[in-house]
Amino acid sequence: MRPFSLDLRQRIVDALQSGQTRSAVAERFGVSLATVDRFAKQWREQSDLAPRPITGRPRAILKADQELLQTLITAQKDVTLESLSQALAEQTGKKISLSALQRNLVWLGYSYKKSRGLPMSETPTSGLPSWKRSPK
């Protein structure tokens, strides 16, 4: 979620300083009471309304690495996460976990579904649910 603009933050604090109630300010600007309180507290304590930096770990696979990942996927027909991880490690020098790699593949729009062009599975199904099948 993106932080509120500095202009909106300033208008909220100005409205509070002009004597409007917290609930009236929240309704006027379409924010919650907690947001109004948070901006007022930040103004009282710091005299600054700049948004705090967004925390979190940086992504393991950068934009340039995502382009490399897409070329590796298109170069191989049937590719596994392990082979992609090894290929990326060889190319970039960074070891990337399988879970981070899988998240990036989802972000890029890849899925585990088979395409219609691939042959169906060789295992025949009996048509019965697994709990009704007799053991062999």
**N-to-C span:** 54 Å
Radius of gyration: 27 Å
Mean pLDDT: 83
Principal-axes geometry comes out as: elongated
Order of helices and strands: HHHHHH
How many strands in all? 0
Number of helices: 6
Residues in β-strands, percent: under 5%
Please characterize this protein's 3D structure.
The protein contains 6 helices and no strands. The chain has 136 residues and is mainly alpha-helical. Among the domains are: 6-46; 63-107, no CATH class. The longest helix is centred in the N-terminal third of the chain and has 14 residues, at 33-46. It starts with 5 loop residues before the first helix and ends in a 29-residue tail after the last helix.
Concise synopsis of the structure shown:
With 136 residues, this protein is mostly helical. Helices cover 51% and strands 0% of the residues. It is elongated.
Which features does this protein show?
51% helix; mainly alpha
Secondary structure layout:
Elements: H1 6-17, H2 22-29, H3 33-46, H4 63-75, H5 81-92, H6 98-107
Helix pairs in contact: 1-2, 1-3, 2-3, 4-5
